[in-house]
Amino acid sequence: MGSHPVGPVDGSGAAVDFTKVQQTEQFKELRKRHRSFVFPMAVFFLLWYFAYVLLADYAHEFMATPVFGNINIGIILGLLQFVSTFAITMWYVSYANRRLDPIAAQLRHELEEAAPDAFIDPAGGKK
Amino acid sequence: MIALPSAAVRVPLQTAEATTVGSPLLNIGIFGLFVAITLVIVLRASRNNKTAADYYAAGRSFTGGQNGTAIAGDYLSAASFLGIVGAIAINGYDGFLYSIGFLVAWLVALLLVAELLRNTGKFTMADVLSFRLKQRPVRIAAAITTLAVCFFYLLAQMAGAGGLVSLLLGINDRVGQSVVITVVGVLMIMYVLIGGMKGTTWVQIIKACLLIAGAFIMTVWVLALHDFNLSTLLGAAIETSGNAAITSPGLQYGASATTRLDFLSLALALVLGTAALPHVLMRFYTVPTAKEARRSVVWAIWLIGAFYLFTLVLGYGASALIGAERIAAAPGGVNSAAPLLAYELGGSILLGLISAVAFATILAVVAGLTITAAASFAHDIYASVIRRGKVDPDGEVKVARRTVVVIGLLSILGGIGAQGQNVAFLVALAFAVAASANLPTILYSLFWRKFNTQGAVWSMYGGLGSAILLIALSPVVSGGEKSMIQSADFSLFPLSNPGIVSIPLAFFLGWLGTVLSRTTEDPMKQAEMEVRSLTGVGAEKATDH
Questions:
Q1: How far is B409 from chain A (nearest CA, A)?
Q2: Using CB atoms, which residue from B93, B263, B545 is nearest to A125?
Q3: Nearest Cβ partner of B260 from A50, A57, A68?
Q4: Dihedral, CA of residue B61, residue B64, residue B66 and residue B72, to nearest 10
């Protein structure tokens, strides 16, 4: 499997100085944009999830408070977990399309043009 | 042990009475039709399986939508369908909590894992974990945790298949169920052997469509009977059960301080386990780019989310139309809620359809697990460790195919042996092992520059070992009324799910191993991995020609 470009076994990346790429402003910007979105978002949804779990686990009476008809706060908060999951998903997709993909694509093309040999795959890929 | 950690995967175990509902012949007929159609598709899909990339990663030829549907197919096991509907029907709101954990967990995969993983790996989870660390120790550890998770998951599904038939096909004796397990196992071996990842993916896609469509039809039907009003449905469920508490939490997990802590532990394992399940991770390699990997997760989130909303309606629907007592008394107990509801709504035909879908689902999940385990063995252990990379792809695929047969036979034997065993035990172990053994190392190696080999090895073995040890010492295994071993009591650990201890421990060990290590890893490799993971350089080119 040594001929595939992905994976460290083959050392195919040797032709490209990745440490240099890592230090470019463009790459730092991409990493910043990625992390400044996914980390706070991950913290947020985990806090919101565990807040909900703790309420369901320890605040039964609060969760049983009726809101309308037979619908209580517990059902509403549970459904809101679905809503927030869908919302974060859509938000991330739109963020990634606008703010991450263009930079990533540009960097990728620059790298592949600079060192075409390092990224061409003689064995894998579609045949 | 009422508070079993995974109602999500509980499948009928008891084969008490020889009563069945509907017509077993019709059920077998519909199931046979599914097998025939999917086999034809697998045969067609497998015509151009030539390279290793074809066999393990379906030539990276699937679109995000197709792969997302297949992920949903992999994730929504029949047990999850039967288990969650049953848990809501009997325990009310506490069953709903499973759905939420299973869904929210996908955000971890979407935000932190899927795209970066697709960009840095090739076939297996170990590709990513060993990218910038020492190949052999990390690959071996990652392969062992992969095989452990897959094996426990497989046993549960195979044993579940045996239990399911007692209700659906009217086969109640042990020998008959063993025959059914063998048939399922042989079919699964055929799918994976012939079809590779491509065939397996098509089976998942078809099954996901059938399962979601079936659940959708039943949901609309139940809602139609209750004026399309959730409040009316809840009211009917309260009336049938005579217990207003079923619409609020606590019925199952509120019993004591221990059960509450157990629930917290389960919630942690669920939300962190999903993004570390090897058979789910491997699906990200079947798409050509990171962007398609993102699309697949988005599709999966919508499909899985919709499905879990259906199960809420179906669970309360079963509670309202059938009643918890009748469900609990039926063969298969709590897990019979969905089939009973189908029978109540649409008679034998709908029951036959839903049963066949449930059964087909087990087959598809088992196939997905088997190919993951086989890929891990052939690619990580055989090709990279035993042969030290000196094996051509054809040789590797040959080994993978042989591994499929071995794993298939082992899971048939294990499934027969595990009949009547506590199935929830096996799947809880799979989720806990995934979250403890894999997730810390995945996150550290993607995001922590200083992370090193010692940290990875400590975290993976520490997570794996502590999760298995704590489950072995839990009331799931011994001491309780529903334990696997009732005659002895060595349950030193009070919780049925080890997550709350083993997951933080694995994160801690990963940190400790790293800071205590004297060797530093190659900074070039770290740079390469980071650049590749964020830009997708190299990974995408591979499919361009």
A1: 28
A2: B545
A3: A57
A4: 130
Phi-psi region of B450 (alpha: psi -120 to 50; beta: other; left: phi over 0): alpha
B110/A92 Cβ within 8 A:
yes
What is the full per-residue pLDDT of chain B (545 aa) written as tens digits?
A: 333 333 333 334 333 333 456 677 887 788 788 788 888 888 887 776 667 777 777 778 888 889 999 999 888 876 677 778 888 898 888 888 888 988 999 999 999 999 998 898 778 888 888 888 998 899 999 999 999 898 888 877 777 776 676 666 777 677 887 887 888 788 888 888 888 888 888 888 988 998 999 999 999 999 999 999 999 999 999 888 888 888 888 887 888 888 899 889 989 998 999 899 998 888 888 888 888 889 999 999 999 999 999 999 999 999 999 988 888 777 667 777 888 899 899 888 888 888 778 777 788 888 888 888 888 888 888 888 888 878 787 788 888 888 889 888 988 888 777 666 666 566 767 888 899 999 999 999 999 999 999 999 999 999 999 999 998 898 877 777 767 777 778 888 888 889 999 999 999 999 999 999 988 888 888 899 999 999 888 775 444 33
* b/e B361-391 (16+ beta carbons within 10 angstroms → b): bbbbbbbbbbbbbbbbbbbbbbbbbeeeeeb
**Between chains, do B135 and A8 touch, taking CB under 8 Å as contact?**
yes
Distance CA B5, CA A31 (A): 38
Listed residue (B80, B57, B75, B535) closest to B284, CA to CA: B57
CA-to-CA dists, residue B33 to B157, B180, B356, B360, B536, angstroms: 21, 16, 9, 10, 42
Q: CB of A57 within 8 Å of any CB in chain B?
A: yes
- Yes or no, beta carbons of A96 and B106 under 8 Å apart: no
Q: How many helices (H) and strands (E) does chain A have?
A: 6, 2
Cross-chain residue pair A8–B530, CB shorter than 8 Å? no
Question: What are phi and psi for residue A68, nearest 5 degrees?
Answer: -145, 145
CA distance B322 to B89: 9
Say if residue B448 is exposed, middle or buried (CB neighbours under 10 Å; 0-12, 13-18, 19+): middle
Instruction: Return residues 66-85 of A near B (CB < 8 Å).
Output: 68-72, 74-75, 78, 81-82, 85
Asked if A125 and B525 come within 8 Å (Cβ–Cβ), the reply is no
Tokens of B525: 């490799």
Cβ contacts of A5 on chain B, cutoff 8 Å: 538, 541-542
Contact residues, chain A, for B297 at CB < 8 Å:
89
Which residue is closest to A21 within chain B, CA to CA?
B531
Whole-angstrom distance between the N-terminal and C-terminal Cα of chain B? 56
